[in-house]
Design brief:
Layout: H1 5-9, H2 13-16, H3 31-39, H4 53-62, E1 69-71, E2 77-79, E3 96-102, H5 108-117, E4 120-122, E5 125-127, E6 131-135, H6 139-148, E7 152-154, E8 161-165, H7 168-180, E9 186-191, H8 195-210, E10 221-224, H9 231-243, E11 248-251, H10 256-269, E12 283-286, E13 295-299, H11 302-313, E14 319-324, H12 331-336, H13 342-351, H14 354-357, E15 362-365, H15 373-379, E16 384-387, H16 395-401
Parallel strand pairs: 3-6, 3-11, 6-7, 8-9, 9-10, 10-11, 13-14, 13-15, 15-16
Antiparallel strand pairs: 1-2, 4-5, 12-14
Helix pairs in contact: 9-10, 13-15
The protein binds iron/sulfur cluster.
Iron/sulfur cluster binds next to helix 2 and helix 3.
Length: 402
């Protein structure tokens, strides 16, 4: 792990009130300020004449890279992870989704067009296939065609070195040799045999990288699935390996159902747990609502918003959705954290200009907040507060009946 400012400070004169305390020779006003800068790698450890050898050693160790970043294209980077578990902090670069294509395939252009045309939107984010793993003899021409479609290429001609191995020992040995020969950008291609073995080996590799910073294994790991797996086996294996610990997965062929499933999972794993997904708090309009269209209310938690918005978009009539500023919290979490109060709802309805847009004075609140109905009624006496559904999928039926 990286040393924190406090861990560094313990070694400095300032912590022990020893000679040199806050002497400023390092260019910082205090030992603590220097420790904080060192922790952020914004200062030179040689600037302080009182640094003990033990701290220099620990600092050098903690400054080693945990996992190298490799550029697959101008815009696509893989690697760079620095924690074992997402909840420790966050994962950095989502697992790259690549499809294997044979550059000699007579249907190459057709297959490439189909891959390039694919796009899926989930919770406001758009996903496309990230890369093509290119085989065959016609690599140069095929690379140009792929790059013209803004898709990254992974092949024997790539500027990074691909090392293939069937276990951690083989990959470590080959990686050491490559480093010795001066290779800087390396991708470790793990030869997939079965899922339990793959999970075990990829976990060992990731532990060696993140926890021990063992240089030969501090490179992104790619898993290429064999062609004899059926689509269900691929979805199962790829899902597990997106969680543990593939930086790149290469699917033997393009299948829309498979990649849609994997993108949805990947999006969940690679969101930052410290930053809830949220949408802008405002009034959203669906299907050109008129002044008498129904009005619903929810928080700005992205998952909630998109679940409700999906239902409203599909209705044959217009509607409004008031989204309150609730720090990206779901309805009940926001309520329990005082981020969804009657005053806030009343203020949102007033400030977002809803009153000028509608004639109706009826607003539908989430079913989970039924207990707030009375409180809301008091805060918004001119409105009729109606308790709606608990699940978003029940909204169409509820609106038809109300
Ligand atoms: Fe503290 Fe060293 Fe900086 Fe002096 S040079 S203020 S002892 S950190």
């Amino acid at each position: 792990m990286n040393l924190t400012g406090m861990q560094i400070f313990k070694y400095l004169p300032g912590a022990k009130k020893a000679e040199g305390t806050n002497c400023k020779k390092c260019g910082c006003p205090t030992c603590m300020a220097y420790a904080l800068k060192l922790a952020k790698k914004q200062a030179d450890i040689e600037k302080c004449p009182h640094i003990p050898a033990e701290l220099k050693e620990k600092f050098a160790e903690s400054s080693k890279v945990q996992q190298h970043e490799i550029k697959l294209s101008q815009t696509l980077i893989t690697g760079g992870e620095n924690v074992m578990y997402r909840h420790d902090k966050t994962f950095v670069h989502p697992t790259v989704a690549a499809i294997e294509l044979d550059s000699d395939d007579k249907d190459f252009d057709k297959k490439l067009d189909k891959i390039a045309a694919y796009e899926i939107e989930r919770i406001g984010e758009k996903f496309k296939i990230d890369a093509i793993y290119l085989t065959g003899q016609n690599i140069e021409t095929a690379t140009k065609k792929i790059e013209a479609k803004n898709i990254a290429v992974i092949s024997q001609n790539s500027p990074f070195k691909i090392i293939k191995g069937s276990d951690i020992n083989e990959l470590e040995t080959l990686s050491k040799e490559a480093i010795f020969l001066g290779e800087k950008d390396i991708i470790l291609e793990y030869d997939f045999k079965n899922l339990p073995k793959a999970v075990e080996q990829l976990t060992l590799i990731r532990r060696a990288a993140i926890l021990r910073r063992h240089e030969p294994l501090t490179y992104p790991v790619m898993v290429r699935f064999p062609k004899d797996l059926d689509s269900l086996e691929i979805v199962a294996a790829a899902s597990v390996l997106i969680c543990r610990y593939a930086n790149i997965i290469v699917l033997p062929e393009f299948d829309e159902a498979t990649v849609s499933t994997l993108f949805t999972l990947r999006q969940n794993i690679y969101t930052n747990p410290q930053k809830p997904l949220q949408v802008e708090a405002k009034v959203y309009e669906f299907n050109e609502p008129d002044k008498n269209a129904p009005i619903l209310l929810t928080t700005n938690f992205a998952l909630t918003y998109f679940a409700v918005a999906g239902e409203l978009e599909a209705l044959p009539f217009g509607s409004y959705l008031v989204v309150t500023p609730s720090d990206g919290m779901s309805v009940l979490t926001a309520w329990s954290a005082d981020k969804f109060t009657a005053e806030l709802v009343a203020r949102s309805v007033k400030n977002y200009g809803l009153l000028e847009k509608v004639n109706t004075r009826k607003i539908i609140i989430p079913g989970l907040l039924a207990h707030m109905q009375e409180e809301l009624q008091e805060a918004m006496p001119e409105w009729q507060i109606v308790t709606g559904t608990i699940e978003a999928c029940q909204i169409p039926e509820f609106l038809k009946q109300s």
